[in-house]
Amino acid sequence: MLSYIVKRLAIAIPTLLLLITLSFLLMHAAPGGPFTYEKKLPPEVLANLNAKYGLDQPLWRQMISYVWGIVAHFDFGPSFVYKDRSVNEIIAQGFPVTLHYGALAFVVAVASGVTLGVLAAIFHNSWLDYLAVGVSIGAQVLPNFVMAPILVLVFTLWLRWLPGGGWEGGQWQYVVMPVIALSTSYMASIARITRSSMLEVLTSNHIRTARAKGLPTAVVILRHALKPSLIPVISYLGPAFVAMITGSVVVDMYFSTGGIGKSFVDSALNRDYAVMMGVTILVGALTIIFNLLVDILYAFIDPKIRY
Amino acid sequence: MALSAIDMQAVAARLAGDEVRGRSPWADARQRFGHNKAAVTGLVLLILVALYALAGEWVAAWPNEEIDWGIMGKAAEMGMPALANGHYFGVDDLGRDLFARTAQGTRISLLVGVVGAVISVVVGTLYGAISGYVGGRTDQIMMRIVDILLAIPFMFVIILLLVMFGRSLTMLFVGIGLLSWLSMARIVRGQTLSLKAREFIEAAQATGVPGWKIILRHIVPNLLGIVAVYATLLVPEMILTESFISFLGLGVQEPLTSLGKLISEGAGTINYGTLWQLAFPLFFFVITMFAFFFVGDGLRDALDPKDR
Predict the structure, then answer these.
(1) Taking the CA atoms of chain A, what radius of gyration do you get in angstroms?
(2) Which residues of chain A carry a pLDDT beneath 50?
(3) Looking at the DSSP assignment, which residues form a beta bridge with residue B97?
(4) Which of A28, A139, A238, B12 has the fewest CB atoms within 10 Å, i.e. is most exposed?
């Protein structure tokens, strides 16, 4: 087990370093610097600015100090556009919001997806099964940026039940639509995966044995069938988590929830490279850590996995 | 005796007469695909969407960039879909003809999807086949590179690329090209590993065919089925990626447009009673995605040897 974790870490850490280095080099290759304005700065001012931000040093020095700042102090440096704010402050402002509805959406997607998938498998070829399959096919073509306007259209403009955007400290009526928009297509995928693996498990020998010895159906499903059929679902959780963080960009833009996605798009439009890189690296780190956790969890749950 | 001689003649005549015609695996696959109603429907829809994307602007009464000054600013009252003024799908917020713009957007979205799929087919197939065929340490290093690249949040990197090097179609293709071949390379490698153990590859090796020729002549043709399936399933994924980026306003720039951008524009104006601005791009987006998924599924049933 330990050697497995070490082996996974041996991939994860270089990946993270590569990501940091890559985005740093990208920033340097980009045409125009952070102080390229419409009106040209006098050369003395430009030299002073470069000295202040350490841009007059050789590339490798800058790179090492940037990487070191992140690894050792978790410091992404100053923002290039907002002179009085650091990247850390900008991220610290938006990240709790993203995490709030992101985690909720994750829980909703997993809980409802697994329930739907299990029910569809138990009542195979019934109307419930067809409904579940229909929903999962339909939701596949309704990604978050399609769901968001449709939800606003229905719940805000037609029914007038929910506010069309804003956050207000995370009151429930502001959270509902972001969570639905973010979780629908992942719920559908999880339902599909659960259904097919549950169908397979239900025909296996140990389930037949459990039924033959007279266990009640609920016990057969919950104790004997659920665990093995969740294994493929768990391996999907890594990608699903990443997709939700990515999808939060759309949610932040459309519902004005003020999460980290908003900072990302704003920085992209302002060419605030420092913030963009900060967010990219943060999301990358989360992705890698989450995949690592899923892999380890996977090894715990499935005794057949050899490491 | 005479009787049996006549029998023999009859048998011989029958044998000579209806020769059983062999069917190639591709003919088999075609037949299976043809029996799949959802897949055929998807294919027909796809052809219709492609026709609209290619010929729509030619049919349209208005060019896609021209502003209808008579309607501009009054889109909600006068810009609704109508045959009389030539705006079959209505006009957008600026008074431009939505029929022509949707056709243009569909074309760009399809183009992005197809380019992504082509890159993944060429790069992914070669990479995966080489990695699987050569094996050993080379294989391990090549696959480790793919693992590392897959762990990078590519949506953010594409946006980073687009912002830093200009939001052009070329840059979008570069970004999508970087991303699209990874999963294909993995699938192809797995398939190559099982092909490598087969007798005909051993025969080729024994007769001294060089490695690159085995890969190109003997491995790759046998991969075509699975590659076709995954390429078809990749197209909607690429369209989704591009639409996502365009929805955020970070994708293609005016005068170009794409379905994601049109959906974003339509979604921005749903407060003003101009629902058609959202409905038509959304309709074409959903139809295209559905069609590709169904065709991909049908192709998988028809071609994927595992499911037979």
Answers:
(1) 24
(2) 307
(3) B91
(4) B12
Residue to substitute from B179, B233, B239, B248, interface A, most A β-carbons within 10 A? B248
Which residue from B minimizes the CA distance to A250?
Answer: B248
Q: Which residues of B touch A27 (CB under 8 A)?
A: 164
Q: What is the mean pLDDT of residues B181-197?
A: 88
CB contact under 8 A, A288 and B151: yes
Instruction: Supply the Cα-derived Rg of chain B in whole angstroms.
Output: 26
| Structure-token pair, residue B247 | 């929805």
What's the gap in Å between the CA of B303 and the closest CA on chain A?
A: 20
Structure tokens at B68: 């209808």
**Residues of chain B contacting residue A148, judged by C-beta atoms under 8 Å apart:** 267
Residue B153 to residue A145, Cβ atoms within 8 A: no
Look at residue B62 in the predicted model and tell me its pLDDT.
73
pLDDT at B307: 47
Q: Which residues of B156-168 are buried (b: 16+ CB within 10 A; e: fewer)?
A: bbbbbbbbbbebe
Cα of A268 vs its chain's centroid, Å: 19
Cβ–Cβ gap A242/B153 under 8 Å: yes
More confident residue, B174 or B91: B174
Residue B139 has pLDDT above 50, yes or no: yes
Report chain B residues whose CB lies below 8 A from the CB of A23. 157, 160
- Tell me which residue in A271, A283, A287 faces B163 most closely, judged by beta carbons: A271
pTM of the model: 0.79
Contact A264/B156, CB-based, under 8 Å? yes
**Count of CB contacts below 8 A, A vs B?**
114
| Alpha helices, H only, chain B | 2-17, 25-35, 37-59, 75-78, 98-119, 125-134, 136-150, 154-165, 169-196, 199-206, 211-213, 220-247, 259-268, 276-303
Question: Could you tell me what percent of chain B has a pLDDT over 90?
Answer: 9
| Most confidently modeled range among A95-104, A159-168, B4-13, B22-31 | A95-104
Q: Mean pLDDT, to the nearest integer, of B257-271?
A: 82
Percent above pLDDT 70 for chain B:
90
Determine the distance in angstroms separating the CA of A290 from the nearest CA of chain B, rounded to an integer: 10
Measure the CA–CA gap between B131 and B188, rounded to whole angstroms: 9
Among B299, B295, B301, smallest CA distance to B50 is for B295
* CA B194 from centroid of its chain's CA atoms: 26
Please give, one letter per residue, the 3-state secondary structure of B131-188.
HHHHCHHHHHHHHHHHHHHHCCCHHHHHHHHHHHHCCCHHHHHHHHHHHHHHHHHHHH
State pLDDT tens for residues A160-213.
777 777 777 667 778 888 888 888 888 888 888 888 888 888 888 888 898 899
pLDDT of residue A108: 92
pLDDT of residue B17: 63
Hey, are the CB atoms on A291 and B248 less than 8 Å from each other? no
Question: Could you tell me if B201 and B218 are in contact, meaning their C-beta atoms sit under 8 angstroms apart?
Answer: yes
What is d(CA A102, CA A144) in angstroms, rounded to the nearest whole number? Answer: 13
